[in-house]
Design a protein that fits this description.
Chains A, B: It comes from Acacia crassicarpa. Chains A, B: This is CSC1-like protein At3g21620. Chains A, B: It is found in: Membrane. Chains A, B: It is a multi-pass membrane protein. The structure is a homodimer of 760-residue chains. The first copy, chain A, is built from 34 helices and six strands. With 760 residues, chain A is mainly alpha-helical. A four-stranded antiparallel β-sheet of chain A has the order 2-5-1-6. In chain A, helix 1 packs parallel to helix 22, helix 8 runs antiparallel to helix 27 and helix 21 crosses helix 27. The radius of gyration of chain A is 29 Å and the shape is globular. At the A-B interface, helix 10, helix 13, helix 14, helix 28 and helix 30 of A face helix 10, helix 13, helix 14, helix 28 and helix 30 of B.
Chain lengths: 760, 760
């Protein structure tokens, strides 16, 4: 087991590597050529233009100003400077509330850490049951609950502390829930007119032999919402079309690449093979080939579009129905329309950006079967994912490679390379799996039939959290694969499971401290460096970029990634709460993580990430719920641990804690969750009345007419067919991020520029 | 363990006692003097008048007609004769659907019994692992799964049968859910105008310093539902008033009793003691005393009524808000009104009869704390109820009684009496507790703050089911108190719990067969006899009844008692499903119970029970859910049982069953439950449109004005104060059970009379 000294060394290494990342970031970001990698958000919002256009050429690559190397952390105060309302206007409420998760971590764990250091640590340290022990215990264990002898009365301290920490956490959670709920309501209320405020998504429109879907929808709502119905838009099945469009785009990219290649080297026309992956088949002139391919696809696209508009089979049994008033839409979204609860399903339309178009037409029975399939699949994924990986690992050994590619044998047999491969190969299958896991989970959610990106991400996040809880948290505490654990738990009593886990917890403290430093500290620092987008951008810049538009496409701002990011934060909440009473020395590491991550992600959200959609913090109930789960888990594990310590006096008093915590959760759910699911009629009526007074002659129908059109009909291929699109997109009034005060941000933007321009 | 012969004897005894009950019933019911005990429903509906008024005097007591003794079961076909739509009109949808639970039992278990007798029984019987066994096994065990040797391949039969039974049960459940849902929708749609169709209950109206509650409600709904709001009624706090009224009623009863006594024996004026229970205190003239008491209470009631109308503190923060259209009410009931989800809570108003007035003003936080308290209390009630009972038992022994009442010592010491008391006393505390259990659970539900009788009963039923499941089902299988079981389960692995229970199941078959016969068969037969109401009616008739009105009050039709009746039926579903594969010999007993109970309760519903409220079968989701629970329990226990039989090949194939069953439940829930919770707008609009066309000049406001008035202002004390009540009750349009075709029922009524009049 590691001593305090070992941890000190590990901390030093991780702090150094974090500093190295920050240093690299500081150097790279002030090079104007990387400007689009590190500040894409400002480009997307049109508040920043390319620095390449002006200035001395030499300054583009080398920064010789000594000051900027001293001030290499000055992005941190800059990131913290933007006030929250400004941030909401800049990057949306989702991002602002996402940052509050880190703040929540700080708010919860800083007082807990102080209290734990003031009370729990001295009690643990002075007990000294381990001082005379024959087993070699580490210093860390001296500070943990392990140091307290069996049946000691000192466990009352831990009991009282567990209560104190629970109450503090619940208090902060409740306050935060309240704040976020009111932020959401304020955000929704203060928003400008948005199409989704007036629109309801109707799914599972039952087929009618006499009427086409469009008329059916119109008649149904004219009859059942006579005073409120305004207009509707049917949903077209554009799967094939969008696949054609993306095919065309890829071919166009290749065409551009070969054109660029040819223009640089006029002596030889580039050629390619038509077969598998460009490796086999007959050789053809690449430019001619791709030109003809693009032309063919353009034709097909035009044909398909024509078909979609004319053929009624392309209309899906779903529609976006818009109402005259927000009140009408709120009513329709919250009520049941028809006797049969599986048809005419209404719900709030997601924001146009947020719609996931492919799942519009899944019928009820199929939906329900899909859920079952995914639930079973997820169970197997969580508990049996090691089996295929072990299989791949068994294949991917040195002998296997030598058999497959005999000509590499001589290289592989070199000792250094051999040992490297042997050490590296077994891990790679697992690593690849873990990298792709969020995408696999997203695919699962998509299969389940959710209709907005935000729901998809929330669902995936829940699954990812469960996976991490079982395979990272439990998997680290108890050795063995998840399936072995499951098997063990099934054969253990409900009483013994918390004991088994609880006993191992103090022993794993050093492991988790290292984990926090590597994954949390260094990981955060690596995030800000954006190594992958940096490389990809420069590669694209080299091979594809011709115009300014290409350059904009080449920059990949990325998104916040709620589906993988939030579960990772939750792991830290879990670790912090579990160890708060047991081994408080872990807490400062958690606090540092939350502080660092808050600064880093605030910087990234301001400068980098693109906002894919705006769900108005709809994810908060999930965040809250998972922290409560962590709290209950920590209480159960503490009970298990204490019962192995034979602290028979104090353990029974812990039983009330999970009961109270679960009750607290239900109370909060009832009190605050409706703000995230429903839209109060009072609010709707207020906004309607105001709007009517302000703009009595508003033509709402025009405003709503083309809000919900499949994106493939909107932009995507603006190179041609524009004239046809005109009839589709009359007023492309997409949701704009509101921006009331423009005077602050350009300043902030200039500030972050100022460090880079200081070298000019 | 009992042999088949033992069971035959037990069956004979129970069948005989059931016949004895039926015989007694047949004799008693044809005595005209008991007419109001056995046919109160017809009196309540005004379709039958007292048979005492006409006919020969002697025939009132003795029935000498030989034929009626042969035809003593002829009420059975009569009970089955009334068609279901007729039954719905006669006794309400709740009763009709309640009977369908018994029918459901028959539908599920008759085919299962046939299949089990055809397949499982021969397989068990011919295995014969027990034939040569040293242990003495009973014949029953030869027919059960116990007879099959370990590791036998014959367990595949049971596996396949488990699948077959599950699919059959699910199929029937789904079909039944569909039928009941459509019955409910049809019932709601075909109903006449009812106040609750237009009315929404608003609770937690936030206090406003500037406006009284009545105005506040009016303004809020005028603003937020401008086109639909019609009128509202505030809720008065009439707790004190109703307690005064009931006090007065009781004193009036005593006054009547003493008056009657005096009128029969004019020589001596009756007197009573004013102290504790009429045992102590000074002696006064009873008639004078009660006359003055009644006068005092009348005055107090008048004062209290005056106060309620004038003092605004008596107005509770709740109101019944009525709308112009059903559409408007449906919208308001299903939507959230205000930002703060804990105020302005709207829900469908219960039927006026169904309202539980005392819980109208419970604030949200208090509600949530009450739920917690009751959840904890129920846990302790379920697992620790034996502790106080054991305590009472330890007190109530012979010595204790002798000490308390020494003068009885000589009587108690008589040997026969002593042994009787010793045998009787320990059981009595438990028996009393079990008799009062449904009332205790009802009190708990009332404390939880539900606002309609139907919800209260549904909630109590759920709790009663859990109690029975743990204390009757598990308690019979595993010896020891519920708490000992809980303790054992906590210390057992999740794998072992089904094994422990599963192993004991075949051994308890004979016990449960006896239980079914005693509780099910004889219990049903006893129910029809109505011994308690019979005695009480005749006592009241003797001491209190002066007028026809008194006689109506004296008859106690009782109600269906969903809160205690349904959980008991569910126990039979559980037993049937658990034993269907294990010991199929139990199935015929279950089938007989369902058949018998169906006939008995159909008779009682037609002739006896009064309908307290009409919830339109809102309880069906609970019934369905509990049968699914029974199904899953039976599957888990079978898994446990088979794994102890080391049937390693077949057991894993059972895992899919609970997964599929739970999925089936979720599917049904999504598909059918909304019909029981929501009111589709399409339906509302259809009815509104129809009504507008039919009755364009309807004065809805007048119709609704006094629908939701506390019953204490309506009837109750119609002896005086009537003139004051007039201003309250303008149009006492209470919900009438609709009756379209009157030609059938009087016939049925006459039929059931005919047997009694045949003796005249």
């Amino acid at each position: 087991m590691a001593t305090l000294g070992d941890i000190g060394v590990a901390a030093a290494i991780n702090i150094l590597s974090a500093f190295a990342f920050f240093l690299a970031f500081a150097i790279l970001r002030i090079q104007p050529i990387n400007d689009r990698v590190y500040f894409p958000k400002w480009y997307l919002r049109g508040l920043r233009s390319s620095p390449l256009s002006g200035g001395a050429f030499v300054n583009m690559f080398v920064n010789v100003d000594f000051r900027s190397y001293i001030k290499f952390l000055n992005w941190m105060p800059a990131a913290l400077e933007m006030p929250e309302p400004e941030l909401i206007h800049h990057a949306g409420l989702d991002s602002a509330v996402y940052l509050r998760i880190y703040l929540l971590g700080i708010k919860i764990f800083v007082p807990i850490a102080f209290l734990a250091f003031a009370v729990v640590m001295p009690v643990n340290w002075t007990s000294g049951s381990l001082h005379g022990s024959k087993l070699t215990y580490s210093n860390i264990d001296m500070l943990s609950i392990s140091n307290i002898p069996l049946k000691s009365d000192r466990f009352w301290t831990h009991l009282v502390m567990a209560y104190a920490f629970t109450f503090w956490t619940c208090y902060i959670l409740k306050r935060e829930y309240q704040i976020v709920a009111s932020m959401r309501l304020h955000f929704v209320a203060s928003e400008h007119r948005r199409p989704d405020q007036f629109t309801v998504l109707v799914r599972n429109v039952p087929p009618d032999p006499d009427e086409p879907i469009s008329e059916l929808v119109e008649h149904f709502f004219l009859v059942n919402h006579p005073d409120h119905y305004l207009t509707h838009q049917v949903v077209y099945n554009a799967k094939k079309l969008s696949s054609l469009v993306s095919q065309k785009k890829s071919k166009q990219n290749w065409l551009d690449y070969y054109n660029l290649k040819y223009s640089r080297n006029q002596t030889k026309r580039p050629s390619k093979k038509t077969g598998f992956l460009g490796l086999r088949g007959s050789k053809v002139d690449a430019i001619d080939f791709y030109t003809s391919e693009v032309a063919r696809l353009s034709e097909e696209i035009a044909l398909e579009k024509d078909k979609i508009t004319k053929d009624s089979n392309y209309i899906m049994p779903a529609a976006f129905v818009s109402f005259r008033t927000r009140w009408g839409a709120a009513v329709c979204a919250q009520t049941q329309q028809c006797r049969n609860p599986t048809v005419w399903l209404t719900e709030w339309a997601p924001e146009p950006r947020d719609v996931y178009w492919d799942n519009m037409a899944v019928p009820y029975v199929s939906l329900s079967i899909r859920r079952l399939i995914i639930a079973v699949a997820f169970f197997f994924l969580t508990f049996f994912f090691m089996i295929p990986i072990a299989f791949v690992q068994s294949l991917a050994n040195i002998e296997g490679i030598e058999k497959a590619v005999p000509f590499l044998k001589s290289i592989i047999e070199v000792k250094v390379i051999k040992s490297f491969i042997q050490g590296f190969l077994p891990g790679i299958a697992l690593k690849i799996f873990l990298i792709f896991l969020p995408s696999i989970l997203m695919l699962m959610s998509k299969f389940e039939g959710f209709i907005s990106l935000s729901t998809l991400e929330r669902r995936s996040a829940t699954r990812y959290y469960i996976f991490q809880f079982i395979n990272v948290f439990l998997g680290s505490i108890i050795t063995g694969t998840a399936f072995q654990q499951l098997d063990e738990f099934i054969h253990q009593s409900a009483n013994d499971i918390p004991k088994t886990i609880g006993v191992s917890i103090p022993m794993k403290a050093t492991f988790f401290i290292t984990y926090i430093m590597v994954d949390g500290w260094a990981g955060c620092a690596a995030e800000i460096l954006r190594l992958k987008p940096l490389i990809l951008y420069h590669l694209k810049n080299l091979f594809l970029v011709k115009t300014e538009k290409d350059r904009i496409e080449a920059m990949d701002p990325g998104t916040l990634g709620f589906n993988s990011g939030e579960p990772q934060i939750q792991l830290y909440f879990l670790l912090g709460l579990v160890y708060s009473v047991v081994t408080p020395i872990l807490l400062p590491f958690i606090v540092v993580f939350f502080g660092l991550a808050y600064v880093v992600y605030r910087h990234q959200i301001i400068n980098v990430y693109n906002q894919e959609y705006e769900s108005a913090a709809a994810f908060w109930p999930d965040v809250h719920g998972r922290i409560v789960v962590a709290l209950v888990v920590s209480q159960l594990l503490l009970m298990g641990l204490l019962s192995t310590k034979e602290a028979a006096h104090s353990t029974p008093f812990l039983i009330a804690l999970p009961v109270l915590t679960i009750w607290f959760h239900r109370f909060c759910k009832g009190r605050h969750e409706p703000a995230f699911k429903k839209y109060p009629l009072q609010e709707a009526m207020m906004k309607d009345t105001l709007e009517k007074a302000r703009e009595p002659n508003l033509n709402l129908k025009e405003f709503l007419q083309s809000a919900y059109i499949h994106p493939v009909f909107k932009g995507g291929d603006d190179s041609d067919d524009d004239e046809m699109m005109e009839e589709w997109v009359q007023v492309p009034e997409l949701v704009k991020t509101k921006r009331q005060s423009r005077r602050n941000t350009p300043l902030a933007s200039k500030q972050s520029c100022s460090s880079s321009s200081s070298g000019d």
